[in-house]
Structure formats: C-alpha cells, structure tokens
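Saturday, quiet lab. Running sequence design on the structure tokens for the scaffold JK sent over.
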C-alpha cells in the first residue's frame, strides 16, 4: 500500500502538469498544510499562544466586552485547554487511522462481502465496536421546549452569510400563501407579476390545509367563511365565531385550538390557532390588496415554521483562514446579541432586515396574553476534531479548530445568557453546540470534557453547553448507545446525517470492493437499519422529552411538491425534527407536524420497549452489511457505469468551482439534468469517494475518469455562464478549482476518512491569494498621471507554495 504521487510516468501528470504532488498514504495523516503566502501570519502574543492579530482584536474588542470575561482570562484559558487537550485530539485522530489501517488490511486479505461472524469479530477485537455501556438514561436538563417538547422543522444555514442567517433566524414564522403561490405545490406559471387567479388558487390550497388541521363543526369548510369574530365570555375567555356564506355561523370542531387573537372592529385583526404545539395565525385586513380579494378579508396565513436553526460553521460554510473565521464568529456574536442586521433592497427601496421580536396576542383561555418567539431557537455547529487552524498557534503548531470554536461560541452566547441581547435565544440558560463527524464514544467523551473545561474557564455553570451528536460516521452508528452514554448530561439531539454517513460507508470499506451505483446506496440494508436504529436508541434511552431525534436534509429545494408528499414519513418513523433547505421549505414541512402527532408516535414506540430492544442485534448486522456491487460490478453495462460517473463528476465539479472559486460553502447547484440540488461538503464527499472507489477497483480507469471530468467541466462552465465571479474550468484546466477536483478524485482513497475539507481549504487559499495578486497588479497598472511610471512598475511577487511543509493533521 505505497503512497501514491504524481510523477513523470503518471498519465495524469501529462494532462495536469501543475497538479501538486502529494505524499499521503491511506490511513496516514502526514498531509500537506493549507497553502499560504510565505510571509508569517501576523500574530499577537496571547499568553503562550500566537494569535492572528485581527482575530485577537475581534475577541478582545468585540466578543468579550459585556461578558465579564477579561481578554487575559480568555486567552490564558484557551492556552490551558490547548496544552492539555490538543495532544489528546491528535491521539484520537491517530486512533481513527489505526482502526482504518486494520480494516484495510483485513479487506485486502478477504476481499468482497465478508463473512458476518468473522467481520464482527474483527470489529470487536480491534476496538471498532466499543464495550456495551452500563444501563443509563439521557439526563440533560434545562433544554428549551423547541428541542425537548415540541416537534417541528429545523433549518441549517451557513453562519458566514449574514443575509442567509438572518433569514434563517426569522424563519420561525412563514407565509403559507407565499409558500404555495411561489412553489410547485401549486402547478402552473408562477413567474412574473402577481396573478390574481393563481392567488385565488393558493387560497384554495390553504383552505384545504386549514380544513385538515383545524376542521370546523358540521359540514362547514374554511372556503365558506366570510368573517372571523371573537365573542368574550364571563371570566375573560373568548370563543371564535365564523360567519359563513350561507348566512349561518360555525365554530372550530375543537374549541381548544383557538389560542389567541388581536381585537379589531368589526372583526378580529388576527386569530391564533394551535395544534401539536405549533401555531397558525390568520391575519385579517380587508383594506390590504390580498385581503380585499378574500371573502373573510384574510390577507395571509402565517405558519409557525422553523422552531430551530443550525448556524453552521462546518459543512455549509467556507472559512479557510482567520479573516473568514472572524466573519463567521462575528455573525454568531450578532445573533447572540440580537443585533445582526443586513441592508437589503426591496421594492426599489433600501431596507434593513433585522432579527424579529417576539409576538403577543390576547389569550383566548382567559385574562392575560400569549407570547411566542419571533425567531427560531439558534444552535451553532462547530467543526469536527479533524480540522486544524493557523489562526491560533501553540508554539509552532496549528491547533484543533474545534477547541477554538467552542471557546468563541460559548463566549458569544454569554451575551444571551446574561441578558445583554435585544432578544432572547435560550429561555432556559443553555448554549446548543452541534458536534459533527465524531467517530465513536471516546470522541464523545472528549467533547463532553472540552465543554466542561470551557465552562470552567468562562465561569459558566456545569452543563450549560449542550451537545448535539451528528450520527454521520459508521463507528458512531455502530456505537450510538455508547456515544449517548458519554454525553448523557449534555445531549440535546441525535441526528442522522445520511449524506456524510454514505461517504463514510464508502471510505471505511474502500478496500472491500466496488460500491453499488450511487443511487442504489440508499436502498441497501445499512441505510434502513441506520435510520431505524437512531430512532430506537433515542426512544429507548429516554432522549424524548429532553431533546430531539432528527432526520436529514431535503436536498431538492425547488421540488416542494414532492417534499410535501414524502417528507412526512420521517415523522411517522419517530423523528421529532428534520432538516429543510429554506424558510419556505420549513413552512411547508411544518404542515407534516400538524398531520402527525410525533408525541403519539414516540409514545407508541416507548410502549413497545421490548420489541425495540429485540431488534438491536439485527440492526447491528444490517449496519455491518457493506453495500458492494454484486459480482464486483461485472454485470453492470458500460452505459450504466458511465452515467454514474458522469453524475458524480458533474456534481463534484459543480460544487468545487463555487467553494474554491467563490467561497460559497452551500448553494443550489444544478445536477447533470439541470435539477437544482442543495450541495455541501457531505455531497461532495460521496461523489469523490464513489469515483475513487470505482477507480481503485477497476470499474473505471484513469483515462476514462479524466475524459469524463473534462467533458463535465464544459457542462459546468455552461451551467455557470454569466455567474458573477465564476472562473471557467475549460479550456486551460489549470486553476485551483480544477486541481482541487482532481485531487479529491485521484487522491480520494488516501484522504483520511474521505473528508474534503483539507483539499478545499488549501486550494481556496491559493485562489484567494491569486485574487490579491490580481488586485495589486490592477492597482500598479493604472495610469495616474504624474505617478505613471511608478505605478507601472511590476507588482511585488506573492509566492504561493504548492507543496508547503506538512502539519500533524489535515
């Protein structure tokens, strides 16, 4: 298993003469560091640390004031944590490599589908399978109801994009009429100016949905309603009275669904309804251009939508250096202060989009009011253990980025905890950190200890920092109970990240043989057992009532009709939340939580505890079933192979060109059939690992892959024609985007765990440096009159190291 590198005899070298050399052997982490300008990163002393001067200024001057934490206390605390835990972080990564090396060697000795008994013995003997945890239950406390008690949609949004993240925070409420009118939920033409006939049809769909969630007495339907009024009772309670087109009146079949109102003359201005812990507001205004067209004067139907939103510093973000990281940290700080805002142009006017305040109605149950949050509960996803940063150095070594993330995330949230924020995020005094890409319970225990250390350094009560465990790596799936035991005092969710989980499924068993067609991987036994086992663990270990059981992303943001048809199945399977790609998707997905009582589903599962326990062993067996192609792929037609290769190559290039070339970590990327899909590093991991696997096992060859990638480059260039800032791949095939794509494919087998971050980050930094050179050259080429000769001197050379010195971990 020799380390592979580009050489003169390598056919790729002739086609990509500037492709950087790598000396990374599979399972070995002596990978190259991020390319950088040769000058030292400007750094300010902070105790025993060396810190990027701008990052230190941000922490000292913006992050900490108002928290009661002095800069010296923060940096000394971070230094102490790093001295103790950075070596252990590295040891955990070494353990990953050690286990992977054992699996690789075994699969090379016994290729193909393994004998189940022998394979299980290997996993147990090597320590890949952890010892069973003693009996326990999740015991997290002070978890907000949006996570512990009420089921609802969850948004994921890159925190480095202020506009996106403010929209995500405000996605707690969304217009049902807009969601219907503006998507394929309502067939027909939706382009151009407002169409009254389509608006009327949107009301028709909304009426039907109201009939399902809030049925009226007798045969009346919401389309019959001509007025909404509120009748006050003795004692201060109220009832909702609905006038009908027939001249009669109707009431809600379940009067308890009437939650609140805003009084008006002659009818209520707003009516608040509730079901399964979620709410719908009917806004009434006959003078409004939409309300004037509705029989009852309803101008909008506002749906409580995204109960929570993950502010993502990981897979959907693009933060490759201190400058990028300051943007991400600054946005999270703005959210925690309640002051993040974005100037926007709307209707030809400049407006400032701010975080919404809470919303209050008169209570229908009696004297008093009902106040509901105007924003999603905000969580922060930090990076995984494998990410390192040079924005903070311990001596001459880069440090684990996740440790820095934890300190900054918690310090920013102190503004919310201490009441310094314009609006409140957590009403229970907790900070919610999602931790991705953990491999097994040892890493879960490490994270729990890290959070304790951060709490101690910042003076926070023990267990203030809660952890959300992404069940997205194979070793975590097989040891999920043990992972939950390691985090039981802090756990607020377990979530199946099936995209990353698929990438890890391929990489872990890379040496076993060629994998199924990409589209077939989700139908393999591992997947159904993975999804079922995650829910079973959450129910059996009493996470219900203390946290969420989550399901993965709907990746087709333009196919809302299919989402409305299909995504409700995740709730029927026992999930209390599922990820959506946009505020509009959150509004439509919220309707599934009206149709299905997750509380009843999970309660029914808890009553079948013995049945759940009995299927654990069969689930483990399913999880260990490797999704290999039958007969090594010999039965596949050449057309089927090429179609899958085309699809993988096009998706990979479509994402890489935006990440490396434009710094966009998550966006809608058209696939091979021009269907817009939400892509992030998880989808890239699948595509790159799948090609690398087929290449390794001879399903495809290097010439075929390179020809395909070049052909798909032309497709991607055409799809991005006119895109601002886009750098075409063809005809030069020589930019950082191109080299990053080739590296992910041809070195994909060697990249630790198949993660794409190190490759993307290194080449993104090359692209950023090239752009800086271009800016300098433009400045020096300007004709400025008297200084003409001076300005036309060559710009100072900025060197980029294509093969910088190695760092301990990629």
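Result came back. Writing it out in full:
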């Amino acid at each position: 298993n020799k380390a592979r590198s580009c050489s003169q005899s390598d056919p790729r070298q002739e086609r990509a003469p500037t492709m950087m050399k790598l000396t990374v052997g599979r399972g070995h982490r002596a990978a190259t560091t991020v390319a950088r300008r040769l000058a030292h990163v400007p750094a300010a002393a902070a105790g025993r640390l060396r810190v990027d001067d701008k990052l230190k200024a941000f922490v000292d001057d913006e992050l900490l004031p108002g928290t009661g934490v002095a800069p010296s206390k923060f940096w000394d605390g971070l230094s102490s944590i790093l001295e103790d835990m950075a070596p252990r972080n590295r040891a955990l990564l070494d353990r990953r490599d050690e286990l992977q090396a054992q699996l690789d060697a075994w699969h090379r000795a016994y290729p193909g589908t393994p004998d189940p008994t022998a394979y299980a013995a290997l996993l147990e003997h090597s320590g890949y399978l952890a010892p069973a945890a003693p009996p326990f239950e999740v015991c997290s406390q002070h978890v907000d109801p949006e996570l512990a008690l009420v089921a609802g949609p969850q948004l994921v949004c890159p925190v480095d994009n202020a506009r996106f993240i403010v929209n995500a925070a405000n996605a707690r409420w969304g217009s049902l009429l807009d969601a219907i009118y503006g998507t394929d939920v309502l067939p027909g033409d939706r382009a151009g100016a407002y169409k009254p006939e389509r608006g009327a049809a949107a009301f028709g769909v909304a009426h039907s949905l109201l009939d399902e969630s809030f049925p009226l007495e007798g045969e009346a339907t919401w389309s019959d309603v001509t007025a909404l009024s509120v009748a006050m009772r003795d004692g201060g309670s109220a009832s909702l009275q609905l006038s009908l087109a027939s001249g009669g009146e109707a009431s809600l079949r379940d009067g308890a669904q009437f939650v609140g109102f805003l009084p008006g003359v002659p009818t209520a201005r707003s009516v608040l309804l509730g079901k399964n812990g979620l709410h719908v507001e009917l806004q009434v205004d006959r003078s409004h251009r939409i309300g004037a067209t509705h029989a009852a004067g309803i101008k909008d139907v506002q749906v409580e939508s995204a109960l929570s939103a993950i502010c993502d510093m990981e897979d959907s973000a693009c933060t490759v250096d201190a400058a990028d990281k300051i943007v991400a940290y600054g946005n999270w700080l703005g959210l925690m202060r309640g002051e993040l805002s974005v100037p926007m142009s709307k209707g030809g006017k400049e407006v400032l989009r701010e975080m919404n305040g809470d919303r209050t109605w008169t209570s229908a149950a009696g004297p008093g009011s009902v106040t509901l949050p105007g924003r999603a509960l905000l969580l922060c996803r930090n990076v995984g253990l494998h990410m390192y940063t040079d924005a903070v150095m311990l001596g001459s070594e880069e440090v684990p980025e996740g440790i820095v993330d934890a300190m900054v995330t918690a310090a920013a949230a102190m503004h919310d905890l201490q009441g310094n924020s314009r609006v409140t995020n957590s009403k229970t005094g907790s900070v919610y950190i999602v931790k991705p890409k953990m491999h097994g319970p040892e890493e879960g225990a490490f994270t729990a200890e890290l959070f304790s250390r951060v709490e101690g350094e910042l003076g926070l009560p023990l267990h203030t920092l809660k952890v959300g465990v992404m069940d997205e790596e194979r070793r975590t799936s097989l040891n999920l109970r043990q992972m939950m035991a390691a985090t039981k005092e802090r756990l607020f969710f377990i979530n199946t990240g099936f995209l990353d989980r698929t990438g890890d499924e391929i990489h872990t068993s890379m040496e076993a043989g060629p994998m199924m067609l990409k589209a077939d991987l989700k139908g393999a036994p591992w997947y159904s057992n993975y999804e079922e086992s995650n829910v079973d663990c959450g129910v059996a270990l009493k996470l219900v009532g203390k946290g969420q059981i989550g399901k993965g992303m709907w990746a087709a943001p333009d196919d809302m009709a299919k989402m409305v048809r299909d995504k409700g199945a995740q709730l029927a399977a026992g999930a209390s939340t599922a990820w959506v790609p946009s505020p509009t998707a959150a509004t439509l997905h919220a309707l599934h939580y009206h149709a299905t009582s997750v509380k009843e589903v999970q309660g029914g599962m808890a009553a079948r505890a013995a049945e759940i326990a009995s299927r654990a062993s069969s689930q483990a067996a399913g999880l260990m079933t490797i999704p290999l192609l039958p007969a090594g792929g010999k039965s596949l037609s050449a057309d089927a192979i090429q179609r899958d290769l085309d699809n993988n190559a096009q998706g990979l290039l479509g994402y890489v060109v935006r990440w490396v070339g434009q710094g966009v970590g998550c966006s809608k990327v058209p696939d091979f059939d021009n269907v817009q899909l939400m892509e992030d590093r998880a989808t890239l991991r699948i595509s790159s690992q799948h090609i690398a696997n087929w290449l390794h096992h001879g399903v495809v060859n290097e010439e075929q892959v390179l020809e395909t990638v070049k052909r798909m480059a032309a497709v991607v260039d055409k799809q991005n024609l006119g895109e601002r800032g886009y750098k075409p791949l063809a005809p030069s095939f020589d930019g950082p985007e191109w080299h990053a794509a080739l590296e992910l494919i041809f070195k994909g087998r060697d990249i630790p765990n198949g993660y794409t971050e190190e490759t993307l980050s290194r080449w993104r930094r090359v692209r950023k440096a090239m752009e800086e050179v271009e800016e300098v050259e433009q400045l020096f080429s300007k004709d400025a009159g008297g200084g003409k000769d001076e300005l036309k001197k060559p710009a100072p050379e900025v060197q980029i190291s294509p093969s910088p010195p190695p760092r301990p971990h990629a």
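Notes for JK: The longest strand covers residues 225-232. The radius of gyration is 28 Å. Ask whether to fix the surface positions before the next round.
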